[in-house]
Amino acid sequence: MPITSKYSDEKFENILTEVAAVLEKHGAGPDLSLMIAGNIVTNVINDRVGRGQRKAIAEKFAQALLSSIDE
Description:
Layout: H1 9-25, H2 30-48, H3 54-68
Protein name: UPF0352 protein OJ16_04565
Pfam families: DUF1414 (PF07208)
Family: Belongs to the UPF0352 family.
């Protein structure tokens, strides 16, 4: 069963395009881009997820990341 999002594809794509443009503007290579993305994820989890759920959310995020990359 496909996963449906409460966010529109348009909204998601617009934000993704803007973030990618900022990284490109600053010449962020893969290593810096991943460091920034990792810090954003960490901040979102620490600031917006309850303490008791943080580890489970981080593990689910890591699993989703691993399943989404091409080998």
